[in-house]
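Morning. Coffee machine broken again, so started the prediction first thing and wrote up yesterday's gels while waiting. Chain of 436 residues, entered below exactly as on the submission form.
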Amino acid sequence: MFDQTPRQSVSTAATPGKTRRRPRVVIVGAGFGGVAAAKGLVGADVDVTLIDRRNYHLFQPLLYQVATAGLSPAQIAAPIRSLFAHAPNVRVVMARASGVDSHHREVRLEAGEPVPYDTLVLATGARHSYFGCDEWEKVAPGLKKIDDATEIRRRILTAFERAETEPNPVARRKLLTFVVIGGGPTGVEMAGAIAELAKRVLARDFRRIDPTSARIVLVEGGPRLLAAFPAKLSEAARKSLERLGVEVRLGMPVSACDVDGVQVGDERIAAATIVWGAGVAASPAGKWIKADADRVGRVQVLPDLTVPGHPEIFAIGDTSMAPGPDGKPLPGLAPVAKQQGAHVAATIRGRARGQAAMPFRYRNFGTMATIGRGAAVAKFGDRWLLSGMLAWMLWGAVHVFFLIGFRSRLRVLSDWAWSYVTFQSCARLITGQGSH
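Came back before lunch.
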């Protein structure tokens, strides 16, 4: 039981004879938003505690390349402690948060003592959503963390290995069929990467099977791919995927999904490997603080990103539903979360100086998605729409630039250059449960 005595408010001036306690800022989640908030508070007159259930910060936009053997996990992840090794006012705690006591201002952990806060930043991210069909998760894993990526990589590579020794042509065809569900950026990038892996990287590696005969099907329930992009770029993405040999099914939601394949409309597609990229839901952070949330669990926030009725609590990134200039919710993208994290840090610093909080303003520098080798789509503002090689080069430059650490940038750039020249991948390892 928690002590029912209300906590004393934090004083900004030292009491005679006593040492002043600095304000305590607790950040839950070390994704893009949480790390940006913590970095913005380095050297500030506050004590920061950054809590995450994993010990690494992940560059999620390149996670699909780990899943398709293009990169290794260490190239897109960095230990959280190393990011703040030279920040004495930032403490890193590896633990799973299980709730928030907003009355006593404490974050509860599954193991360990509660962590008290004066200001709380919820940057807990998102999880997969199977639209009420949670039993599909076992056969159609999503892509949110390194464990997901290595599991999908294991399934993809194992399918080719098993096909090499499978005498039954029907079973072999099933092993060489890959279904990606969801036509957003994750689904488009996954489908394109699997196609390149099968038709280019593995083309000469097997003796009994022809990897180039692999069937890759991308299923989207809506009328077009990349619904957040203009129709022109959606069409360019579809054509690029089809040139890679991907079968694109539009306007056909999946009605069944099991170990034997998927049901798409009236067609049954037998497939041994299914990847989910169709939907996400927010973490349960909104329930922790009993806040108003939308249908996928995103906390409705005020213009300054605080939770209504709780000026001491901020919600950012995929945890929040913040309106953009057009009144529509901002998308769950890394640039949004990073800018929100920086805004929250600036607001906390400003409060210490007695400044009024400013509303958050998102600066949209563009949206990109890659389809495959030399093919991508990009949107900059309302006028600049790019596709093809130029968009692909810009996509690569932007992603390398935002990777954390010079070493990671150099390794990713060199691996991409090697893969481009040789059509070979450096991370084709089958690891994890079931790899033997």
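The two ends are 47 Å apart (CA to CA). Going to sketch it on the whiteboard this afternoon.
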